Amino acid sequence: MRVLVGHRLIQLQPKGRVPLRRLQLMAIPFIEGPHKFMSDLDLLAKSYGTLFLRMHRLLDRRMAAGGASLAKTKMLMCVDQRGPMRAADIADYLGMAPRTVTEALDKLERDGLLVRSPDASDRRVKQITITGKGEQAIAATEPLRVELVDLIFGSLDAEQRASLATIIEQLSAKVDKVEGIDPD
Which of 6, 130, 147, 150 could potentially form a cystine with 134 if both were Cys, beta carbons 3.0 to 4.6 Å apart? Predict the structure, then answer.
């Protein structure tokens, strides 16, 4: 059986007997792309997700070129701003898996950006503290983050930024509600 896909006629070898119309319908996603079947809300969600990922990757590349990736800088800033912390506290604060945090801390410690030291009250616990080199990494990368955020969001006027902030708050509240999180 042959089916028209785009401008080409291709031969299909279906298992069993499949009606031609069904084969044509099955080929549509490959011809017209998945957007053909997406609702306006799906397209909006996809566009928002794509924009977020593009901005995140751009920010990460720029910061990594400046000395520390976005993830490293977030972890360094967490320890810098909150003082000595346990790995479990960092994982909880950043919403990351403890194993992921431990692996990242190992690398940051090897790079001399953080140091682990025994807790004075419980020798089993290690306190993580930022080093001078870690503070220098923040000083080098945080301005890159601020510059890029200003460049992107600065393209919106005050009214557009206020509208976007309202929309984000509304969507965030809906996500909280769906997750069963009580805002109070």
Answer: 130
Q: Are 127 and 85 in contact, with CB atoms under 8 Å apart?
A: yes
Range of the domain at 32: 2-37
Residue 7 identity: H
Tokens in use for 95? 């919403």
58 occurs within a structural domain = no
Handedness of CA 80, 81, 83, 86 (dihedral sign): negative
- Cα separation, 81 vs 145, in Å, equals 17
Distance CA 114, CA 104 (A): 10
> pLDDT tens digit string along 54-109?
999 999 999 888 888 888 899 999 999 998 999 999 999 998 999 999 999 999 99
Assigned domain for 18 exists: yes
In this structure, the answer to whether residues 117 and 75 fall within a common structural domain is yes
**Same structural domain for residues 24 and 74?**
no
